[in-house]
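Protocol step 4 of 5: obtain the predicted structure for the target chain.
Materials: sequence only (see below). No template structures provided, no constraints applied. The aim of this step is simply to have a reference model before the mutagenesis design in step 5. Sequence pasted as it appears in the construct record:
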Amino acid sequence: LMSHHFVFYHFSGLPMPDYVQDLVPNYGGGTIPDGKASQEDFDHIIDRLNSSTDQFIDDYNDGRFKTYNTYTSEYFGITIKNIEEAIHFTMYHEAFHFGFMSAIKLGLR
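Step 4 output (structure tokens):
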């Protein structure tokens, strides 16, 4: 959620949406889980995932992402030049996380 919004909004020269700001301290870049997530935390994040997707689609359809400052991902070395490439990058990013989670799950069996 945090990476998506940073890659979408920040590099388009747009402010991060308010509905994401409360997640930055615990889930922004460089943070690590502390093992204390409650059901309320989980529900809050799921709600944010759903509402932020809807908001991004509205912003995209409204043409808010007209400009994009080229960005090269620190971890993957992928250069992103426009919002469409940013959307594709986030799918790669999520697949990366999914791969790690799958490996951890397999290791816990």
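Step 4 remarks: Helices lie at 2-9, 18-21, 24-27, 39-61, 83-108. The mean pLDDT is 85.
Proceed to step 5.
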